[in-house]
Design the sequence.
């Protein structure tokens, strides 16, 4: 069972009896992402998003409507069990859900288990054992590197190593939960000593998240031609960053407190089954770049390992909100700006025998385009704080102010298929205490 | 309830009816560390080490012998619940165990729940949510820095920031479990391109581990005068490192695959109650060094925040083992070579609001002495591979060979108190697959 599994659930002619599901920007019946939600008066449970509604999978399982191999896993309070399930079992569950939500005859039995998403609380979909973040957005690496090393922005290892590092699992939060502006040490360029206080350079980072499904035992690498089978799905990830803390602390062991105060993810797991129609060829490397080392090179991964996903970042300041203005789009660009594929980062991560577990989360790193309209952070858009971004209120931003809200969105599209979206990854900045 | 809690459990005159407990190098009755063990024929359960034996706390709890506030927590399969318990509840449990194991009248009822440690398997004591590693061994930082920057070994942030980074929780293993030599990318100095294969520079790192007890909510820092209350106990930590992978991958985001293939910890949690008699003053900083910033500075932490613990590293090669030779001591030095206290690293970690949880593990970073006899890694002892270390077989080592076994040991001592030890942190290197 490979990532490429295509079946009747991807049929563009498929429609749902759920009102407003057909044509829904994020969650038409061809998507069927999994998540964990609470209705207004209820406890957390597993659900699937369909249009503006959420179907309670625990109720479906208890009513005997789901395949026996996964019904028990659907009554859990996290998706870890489903993520660990064999791929065939997840495919069978998806096909069953596609039937239930498309066949009008099922409406009467399911309708009472549908909840309007607007009235529900979305939780983290899984218990995240370990969270690792990569750096595969080559334009981001170039843009950031250029601010430090104008003539030589990319370090020598970049084109060989899918650079990554470990992040903090405990402070990952679902969309909607506000973040508190963090304090920390920063050293103003003209100062002789650092000061401690709230960050003055709070930034967002536009990333994709990768949910690990099947794990690998410690000491056992994952071959590149099997990497896709270890991916359960994807989400959006905002890797909030305090740039002044980062600049002062990061040598020699990398970012720490500049990143681990809060990370926001979109709460729906867009499954690799749902993403199958949107795989595309990895863009060819520039002629001067080395080929990936053999352990990272697989013809199928090169031919189909990238994803046709468009990403965008929206900002709403407090003043914009009060004036009833629409969010300002700060950037928009394709996920094909990733220098390494999802398969390559999974294989690299396990290449030393490091064990990945179901529910682990990998971040891609900031995905920027080559041009300013696709830059994935304010550090890039404002060129390190030197070129303010104009807001429709007349305000400007170099970095984020209290009350600012950042929303990440993504959608996958391919000729002949119904586009699907990731839902929102959104959070507002609260002042330092 | 602060770290300084001293009571009758620390009385040097206290003795145990358990054979060979009195005078035991690691686990006299004044220690009473907690762990999770399986008898030869049984399932994992919580126990306390006493001399060469382990007392089954689940059995004691079920028999109604333990205080009601913690009895239920003692029947769990990990220590996370006990670590999260209020400090007073843990103190009460310790006092009860001290009574049970010292009063000869208790022997008849407890004897059947004592297991020889030699016949038991020790597990990880807790489910580790997040693992962070620091860099507080200033001589280690100097030694390593000197290999790259002879004139300026310490970076400008070192004396202000307790430098740390996130590590991998999934690959932490208890003492005794062998590690597999990892593969990875390394770039020989004379080569134009990196190669992929087993590391040629496998090293150990001598560290202390800090177990977090009570956590802090996201967004809420831990003041330095409360840091001790968030520490449940300590252990030994071997942060196995592949130096050739590390040199090639670590810029700009820090070590990743060079470290996350395996970390070994000693399985007994030496509680902060047990360590109370061994607190000492933090050594004064050199006159030219800046004072810690106010958020890291507390008079009590400066006066009593260091620990009188001696650390040592032992090596046994396969040839030494076959010849029946004793392990070779590679180094020995005091934990007071930490530039920052345990309280300072806890407070710094949470200073941006990052939430720590019960069962999280913090590593101190390699603790080296100023002189060669106390260097905590082979990279330091062999000066980056240039000066081989002689073994009693006539073999030499610059880095570790397959079959080598590294054992870390530690003991705390203070005038007027019975010394206590940490038990072994030991693992053997298996060849790459």
Sequence:
């Amino acid at each position: 069972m490979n990532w490429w599994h295509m079946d009747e659930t991807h049929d563009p002619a498929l429609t749902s009896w759920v009102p407003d599901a057909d044509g829904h920007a994020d969650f038409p019946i061809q998507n069927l992402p999994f998540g964990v939600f609470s209705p207004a008066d209820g406890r957390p449970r597993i659900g699937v998003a369909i249009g503006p509604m959420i179907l309670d999978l625990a109720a479906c399982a208890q009513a005997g409507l789901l395949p026996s191999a996964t019904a028990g896993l659907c009554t859990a309070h996290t998706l870890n069990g489903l993520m660990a399930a064999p791929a065939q079992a997840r495919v069978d569950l998806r096909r069953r859900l596609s039937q239930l939500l498309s066949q009008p005859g099922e409406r009467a039995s399911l309708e009472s288990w549908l909840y309007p998403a607007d009235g529900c609380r979305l939780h983290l979909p899984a218990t995240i054992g370990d969270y690792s973040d990569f750096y595969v957005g080559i334009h981001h690496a170039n843009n950031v590197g250029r601010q430090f090393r104008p003539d030589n922005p990319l370090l020598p290892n970049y084109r060989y190593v899918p650079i990554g590092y470990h992040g903090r699992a405990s402070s990952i939060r679902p969309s909607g939960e506000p973040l508190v502006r963090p304090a920390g040490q920063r050293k103003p360029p003209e100062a002789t000593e650092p000061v401690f206080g709230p960050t003055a350079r709070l930034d967002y980072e536009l990333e994709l998240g990768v949910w690990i499904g099947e794990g690998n035992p410690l000491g056992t690498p994952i071959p590149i031609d099997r990497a896709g089978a270890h991916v359960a799905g994807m989400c959006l990830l905002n890797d909030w960053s305090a740039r002044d803390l980062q600049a002062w602390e990061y040598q020699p062991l990398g970012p720490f407190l500049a990143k681990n105060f809060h990370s926001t993810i979109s709460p729906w797991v867009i499954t690799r089954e749902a993403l199958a129609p949107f795989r595309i060829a990895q863009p060819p490397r520039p002629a001067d770049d080395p080929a990936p080392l053999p352990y990272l090179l697989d013809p199928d991964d090169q031919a189909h390992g990238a994803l046709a996903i468009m990403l965008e970042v929206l900002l709403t300041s407090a003043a914009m909100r009060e004036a009833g203005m629409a969010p300002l789009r700060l950037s928009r660009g394709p996920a094909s700006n990733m220098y390494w594929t999802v398969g390559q980062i999974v294989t690299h991560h396990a290449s030393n025998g490091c064990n990945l577990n179901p529910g682990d989360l990998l971040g891609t790193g900031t995905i920027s385009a080559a041009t300013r309209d696709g830059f994935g952070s304010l550090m890039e858009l404002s060129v390190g704080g030197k070129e303010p971004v104009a807001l429709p209120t007349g305000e400007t931003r170099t970095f984020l102010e209290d009350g600012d809200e950042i929303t990440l969105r993504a959608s996958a599209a391919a000729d002949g298929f119904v586009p699907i979206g990731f839902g929102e990854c959104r959070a507002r900045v609260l002042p330092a205490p």
Remarks:
- The radius of gyration of chain B is 21 Å.
- Chain B touches chain A through 62 residues (CB under 8 Å).
- The longest strand of chain B covers residues 231-238.
